[in-house]
């Protein structure tokens, strides 16, 4: 598994597609389809959806990584700005950050994308 992180509109998905030769039909933005995809993008939005629906996102992400160990996961960084006022937004940010920390521990590589350029972290 590989993890790619970065801020909003920094070119994470485009970088991943080019660097790892991934076609659009091999990508998904939904956890439900991630077990058979090469790339999952928008992890942070799927974490929010799970939280709204009362589903534990940590368990689903762990299942995906076990079923699809070669997946590339793309997630927007949420923790570098102002702390949100709304309770849900704070929980979403915290849970997404903790999921990314766990993914980073397990990942073969972790890259941060800034202005479309990669910085290899691990």
In words, what does this structure look like?
- With 122 residues, the chain is of the alpha/beta class.
- The protein has a single domain, classed as P-loop containing nucleotide triphosphate hydrolases (Rossmann fold), CATH 3.40.50.
- Helix content is 41%, strand content 20%.
- It has four helices and six strands; from the N terminus they run E-H-E-E-H-H-E-H-E-E.
- The protein has a six-stranded mixed beta sheet, with helices on both faces.
- A hairpin with a 2-residue loop joins strand 5 and strand 6 (117-120).
- It is globular, with a radius of gyration of 14 Å.
- The mean pLDDT is 96.
User: What structural class should be given to the helix and strand makeup?
Assistant: alpha/beta
Q: Tell me the number of helical segments per DSSP (H or I, 4 or more residues long).
A: 4
Please state the second-level CATH architecture.
3-Layer(aba) Sandwich
CATH homologous superfamily identity: P-loop containing nucleotide triphosphate hydrolases
| CATH fold group | Rossmann fold
